[in-house]
Structure formats: structure tokens, C-alpha cells
Amino acid sequence: MARRLTPRGEQRRNELMGFATARFAANGYHSTSVAELVDGLGVGKGVFYWYFDSKEELFIEILRDGERALRRAQWEAIGDESVPLARLELAIRSSMDWWSSHRDLYVLIEFARTEASFASSIRKGERVALADTQKLVQEAIDTGAIPDRNAVVVAQAVLGVSSILARTQLLGRKRPASDVADEVIDFCRHGLVGSPTDGRAQRTA
């Protein structure tokens, strides 16, 4: 549902989405009712249905807003940086910083992956993330910063490492975002073999 909102209306919508994000993450999507949300905010159901047709639409909008905010944070972090590998690393670091302060949203995305009604929204977000990462990877390939490989496969690998370490290390073990970003970047740069100057790499028996 698209409505033209006043600044006050936009604020109210954001309050509703923020409150719902926290409740969905804490209690689960299915266990959280519209009545609970409006009671928690101290408003009537009419306020909820002015902004959203259903709880499902609210949840999808939370996912979409989160995806847009993360993407915006990444491109703002990249800014005017012109060195391809530095651009990719800035995107990784901004992602870890963003997830560190949006843990509830990560919980909702993980849940949404298991629900057929939300799967299309998740897949769309993943396609956008892949396209953005592929662009950064292709820039690095074109300038010779990394070997000429399949940019899609490399981008998928970067996203895979980033996602797993975000889930297990950043959110699971609650490690600092900068430390996790360092490890993602180190693995993406050197992989299993390691840097040629790394004395720990390529040991022989």
C-alpha cells in the first residue's frame, strides 16, 4: 500500500516498524499479533491499518527497508574510493558494522528464509546484493587486482564467507565487527593458501 505521508506520518510508520522488528525478533513472527503491536505502542488498530494492510505486509516492508538501508550504508562507505579492492573491503566493513547494530533484523531475515510467503523478498534482496558485489569484483578483475575468474562465482564466495562469519562470529559470539571484517577480508584476499609473504602458508612436512 502506497500512501503519501507527512513527516509525522513517516515518523509514526518508522516507530511501528521499529517496535515490530524488536517484537518479531524476540517473540517470533507467528506469535506476535497486530493487537500486541498496537497495544505496545499505545495506538488503535486503525493506526496500524492506515500504514499496512496486514502483518505480512508489515514484515515484508521491514525486510525491504533493511535491505535498502544496508545497501545505502555500503555505498556511502565506499564513497569516492577508486581502488577496486579497497572498495570491496569498505563494503565488507560497512556490512559488518551495520549488522552489528541491526541484530534483530538479521534474526528476521534468517526466519524469512524458512517461510514460503517471504522467500521471494529474500531472493530479490540476495539478487541485488550479488549484483552489487559482482560489480565490485569485476572492477578488481578488470584492473588486474585479482586473477581473471568468473565474477559471479567470486561474488557468491565473498557473500558466503561474509554471511557465515556474520552469523556465527559477529551475531553468535558477539565479536567486534572490525575483527570479523578483518577475517572476512583476509580470507577473501588470501583464501586457503595465504599471502606469499605469510610464513604460515604452504608449510611442508
Could you write a compact summary of the structure shown?
By secondary structure, the protein is an all-alpha fold.
Helix and strand composition category = mainly alpha
- What is the number of E strands? 0
Helix run count: 9
Strand residue percentage: under 5%
The CATH superfamily title of the largest domain: Tetracycline Repressor, domain 2
The third-level CATH topology of the largest domain is: Tetracycline Repressor, domain 2
| Radius of gyration, in angstroms, nearest whole number | 20 Å
User: Strand count, sense and closure of the main sheet?
Assistant: none
Which blocks of ≥5 consecutive residues have pLDDT under 50? 198-205
* Name of the CATH class of the largest domain: Mainly Alpha
Whole-number total of structural domains: 2
Question: Overall pLDDT, averaged?
Answer: 90
Shape, per Cα inertia axes: elongated
- Would you identify the CATH architecture of the largest domain? Orthogonal Bundle
Assign a percent range to the helix content.
over 70%
First and last CA, distance = 65 Å
Instruction: Please write the string of helix (H) and strand (E) elements.
Output: HHHHHHHHH
Please, could you describe this protein's structure?
The protein has 205 residues and is mostly helical. The protein has two domains: 1-53, Orthogonal Bundle (Arc Repressor Mutant, subunit A); 66-205, Tetracycline Repressor, domain 2 (Orthogonal Bundle), CATH 1.10.357.10. Helices cover 73% and strands 0% of the residues. The chain is built from nine helices and no strands.
